[in-house]
Write a structure and sequence with these properties.
single chain, alpha+beta, Jelly Rolls, 6-stranded antiparallel beta sheet, two-stranded antiparallel ribbon, 6 helices, 19% helix, globular
Amino acid sequence: MTDEERYLFDLQGYLVLRGVLTQQEVDELNEVSDRVYPRDYSDGNDSKERRGIRNVRYVSRWDPACQRLIDHPRIVPVLAEFLGPKFRIDHDYAMFMNAGSDSGNLHGLPELGTHRYFHYLDGQIRTGLTVVTFMLAPAGAGDGGFVCIPGSHKGYFPQNLPEDVRTLKRMPPYVVQPEVDAGDAVIFTEALTHGTKGWRGTHERRAFLYKFNPGHMANHQASYDPANYFDPTPRQRRIMGAPSVGSRPHVIAP
């Protein structure tokens, strides 16, 4: 990481990394999405999903191209710095949204649990549950999608957030929507107050979210089983490992 990237992550609670995925990788992941998971937004009023949004878990199992995101070479060093060298993947999913979709609520510090934290000590940042969002489509100004309150991961008065802002019925200037291109990645700590604004873009929103924890922690009950994957590499197997204290190998190992 550069000193500026480290500064911005500490300041904002999130970081936009430009051009993490090549155009070839973006095209391949979009092709996989169309082939494996065709979306039908006509039945979007069911009880499980908000209108116009499709969430599907464990996209990492879809194809070797999706599996490679588990240990993408641009992302691994960043995660090792923030989560420690024995980090693990906790869960992953895709989010697809069409125009006119509903917004979700802002969340983060008000529901802070043992897995959501942001600490600093002796020049070292340490985070709990941390998200890498791989963008497969652009999100321009006003399109919607990921929104957050920069700096809120260090906030002391989360209970003072107005209800109409929490529910995204009002978007004051301190709630921002980062503008991103296809191929960018947004990394953020779950301690950051964040949410999903209804999609207003003319194209479909496409994002893959891979969430990671320190090696001793778990947010979801189920662990990753390498048998469900495409001949995973040794490093991918290390990242998939179940939570444990002390016995986990370093992710970045020979």
